[in-house]
């Protein structure tokens, strides 16, 4: 049997028996990300649904001054709670959080309306409290709608078309597809995928280099009649295999989780059928040689297991940084960006989830730059293994 | 057959070897004797082609360790200082791994391993994970691993360190068997009794130089004493003074 295959098989088998490796590569990363994802989206949609269905509870001071307004509010789903507060005590109640907001109808309200003036209403709200903002917005929208209704009536009475008051009519046409709207959340998914892919190879990269040296098994291994290139290649292949399997399992876990997450309630939908999962896997797996090469290089510089872990935790962030940047800035794909490994996989994968047509040129550029960098890193790793200092 | 001529090796600011020359013949046991840090391990590492010498040359069966390292590694069996077994693999899997890396045909891996398991009395432990092995069990498996390809030249780096009496006896017996079968055996130690009990030839090394070498009788004559222990101390410290 070929030396590369022998080394590969032994590393795969040995690490499969290491509980720490299996846990971090095949359980932790694979399950953690989809679970976090499911929890956050479920919580978000639950809150959204709750806010929509809950009747608006509106505390009002001076209900008796505006019977028509109260009727309008009640008809539109508001639950009027008559309270007896002064302006300052109402403010204190909102500030302390005892009330979300308070509407005050001053006693001059009725007179001003009758004389055709502008009737005052005080709406006390704390805009810095994000928890109450959706209720406050609903209340304000209702009040504005009532005002609009009164204005229309007044104009009609004077024989003027209400359109006078609407010199422009802005219509908002939302072209976001449901899948497009879920992008911020789904964008985080490629981040999680990279994360679990790298975690999948993390301990192997360490164990096959720094670990082997620390245990004293590297020296007898190097005195065997095989080339050091074959040795390191077998090890990198084993690391790559673990990374690829971690990635595939994570994607499958995601696709299962997405079946149960009420994305539609958030006005989103995800393109995550088996075909898309496989395409995303095919795109992202091209990053595996880069990750495996990078981690192996770093691990072969370090003197011990512990040192390797410290360094690798930092180095793992390098490929993640462009992805995070792109998620936050909602970066659009372009050919120059496709030259950046990890970013290019992220952009293509999110495009696939969004249901976009993927430009073949983009895929080619991504593939070429990523595989080239991967080959370069692996070459560097084999050079490092030829040094005497590899023995530590 | 090992021929070492004028080895020099420097690690950073430390000159580990100044001038090391000796010969270890086939069918004989040669002991490399020296205090800790005298340069024994460095010499053995150059022979096993893991590191390269700065000057001089080392030949194993006529192949140069620097330029024909693959050929050298094929004919060499190395028992390292640390056992270096893989803890998550069983003893048998550890041996199989080395058998395959030595290029043994797949149909010979099993039988060759079985023979060594029987010879070393390993059958009870060989299918357990190496993690739980005792010192003696680890040594036996490492030995099996080093001998799996029937090497002509066997190098052992301080093999008796930390072993109990039974394991040491077993090891000596095995080394003598290797001599009988015509192997060249080179082993390092810092204990004179160890070397005296076993070796046909002794090479005493101190501060990176060979100070005296030959049969035990020749060494006694050269150091003007009748006690090998005393001979070692005189030879090793004579250089330092």
Give the key terms.
heterodimer; A: 392 residues; mainly alpha; abc type-2 transporter like fold; B: 241 residues; alpha/beta; Rossmann fold; 6-stranded mixed sheet; 9 helices; 10 strands; 25% strand; globular
In short:
The complex is a heterodimer of chains A (392) and B (241). By secondary structure, chain A is mainly alpha-helical.
Compute the gyration radius of chain A: what is it?
31 Å
**Separate helix tally of chain A:** 16
The number of domains of chain A: 2
Radius of gyration of chain B, in Å, reads 18 Å
How many structurally independent domains of chain B? Answer: 1
**Record field, number of beta strands of chain B:** 10
Strand order of the largest sheet of chain A: 2-1-3-4
Largest sheet of chain A: 4 strands, mixed
Q: Low-confidence spans of chain B: pLDDT under 50, at least 5 residues?
A: none
What order do the strands of the largest sheet of chain B run in, or round the barrel if closed?
A: 6-7-8-3-9-10
Helix and strand run of chain A: HHEHEHEHEHHHHHHHHHHH
From the spread of the alpha carbons, the general shape of chain B counts as globular
- Percentage of residues assigned to helices of chain B: 25-40%
Number of strands of chain A: 4
| CATH H-tier superfamily of chain B | P-loop containing nucleotide triphosphate hydrolases
State the major sheet of chain B: 6 strands, mixed
Helix share bin of chain A: 55-70%
End-to-end Cα distance of chain B, whole Å, is 33 Å
């Amino acid at each position: 049997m070929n030396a590369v295959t022998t080394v590969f098989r032994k590393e795969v088998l040995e690490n499969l028996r290491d509980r720490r490796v299996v846990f971090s590569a095949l359980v932790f990363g694979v399950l953690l990300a989809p679970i976090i994802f499911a929890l956050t989206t479920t919580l978000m949609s639950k809150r959204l649904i709750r806010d929509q269905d809950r009747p608006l509870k509106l505390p009002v001071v001076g209900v008796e001054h505006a019977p028509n307004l109260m009727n309008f509010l009640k008809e539109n789903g508001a639950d009027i709670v008559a309270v007896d507060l002064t302006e300052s005590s109402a403010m204190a109640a909102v500030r302390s959080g005892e009330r979300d907001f308070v509407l005050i109808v001053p006693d001059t309200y009725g007179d001003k309306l009758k004389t055709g003036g502008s009737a005052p209403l005080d709406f006390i709200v704390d805009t810095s409290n994000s928890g109450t903002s959706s209720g406050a917005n609903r209340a304000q929208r209702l009040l504005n709608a009532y005002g609009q209704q009164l204005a229309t009536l007044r104009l009609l009475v004077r024989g003027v078309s209400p359109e006078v008051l609407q010199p422009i009519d802005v219509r908002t046409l939302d072209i976001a597809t449901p899948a497009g709207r879920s992008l911020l959340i789904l964008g985080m998914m490629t981040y999680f995928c990279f994360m679990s892919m790298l975690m999948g190879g993390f301990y192997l990269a360490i164990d096959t280099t720094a670990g082997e040296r620390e245990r004293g098994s590297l020296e007898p291994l190097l005195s065997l009649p095989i080339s050091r290139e074959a040795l390191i290649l077998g090890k990198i292949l084993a690391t790559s295999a673990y990374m690829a399997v971690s990635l595939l399992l994570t994607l499958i876990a995601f696709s299962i989780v997405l079946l149960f997450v009420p994305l539609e309630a958030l006005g989103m939908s995800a393109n995550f059928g088996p075909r898309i999962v496989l395409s995303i896997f095919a795109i992202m797996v091209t990053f595996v040689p880069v990750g495996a090469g990078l981690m192996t290089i770093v691990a072969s510089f370090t003197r011990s297991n512990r040192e390797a872990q410290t360094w690798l935790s930092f180095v793992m962030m390098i490929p993640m940084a462009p992805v995070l940047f792109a998620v936050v800035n909602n970066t659009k794909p372009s050919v120059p960006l496709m030259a950046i490994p990890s970013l290019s996989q992220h952009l293509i994968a999110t495009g696939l989830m969004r249901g976009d047509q993927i430009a073949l040129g983009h895929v080619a550029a991504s593939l070429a730059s990523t595989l080239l960098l991967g080959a370069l890193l692996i070459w560097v790793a084999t050079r490092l293994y030829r040094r005497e200092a590899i023995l530590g | 057959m090992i021929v070492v001529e004028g080895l020099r090796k420097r690690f950073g600011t430390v000159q580990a070897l100044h001038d090391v020359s000796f010969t270890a013949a086939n069918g004989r046991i040669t002991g490399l004797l020296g205090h800790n840090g005298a340069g024994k391990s460095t010499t053995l590492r150059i022979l096993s082609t893991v590191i390269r010498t700065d000057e001089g040359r080392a030949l194993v069966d006529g192949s140069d360790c620097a330029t024909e390292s693959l050929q050298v590694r094929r004919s060499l069996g190395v028992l390292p200082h640390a056992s270096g077994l893989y803890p998550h693999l069983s003893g048998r899997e550890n041996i199989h791994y080395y058998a395959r890396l030595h290029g043994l045909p797949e149909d010979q891996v099993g039988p060759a391993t079985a023979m060594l398991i029987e010879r070393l009395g390993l059958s009870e432990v060989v299918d357990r994970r190496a993690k739980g092995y005792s010192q003696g069990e680890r040594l036996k498996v490492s030995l099996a691993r080093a001998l799996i390809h029937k090497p002509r030249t066997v190098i052992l780096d301080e093999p008796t360190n930390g072993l109990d009496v039974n394991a040491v006896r077993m090891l000596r017996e095995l080394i003598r068997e290797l001599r009988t079968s015509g192997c060249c055996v080179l082993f390092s130690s810092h204990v004179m009794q160890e070397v005296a009990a076993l070796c046909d030839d002794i090479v005493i090394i101190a501060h990176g130089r060979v100070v005296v070498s030959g049969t035990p009788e020749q060494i006694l004559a050269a150091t003007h004493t009748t006690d090998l222990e005393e001979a070692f101390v005189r030879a090793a410290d004579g250089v330092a003074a």
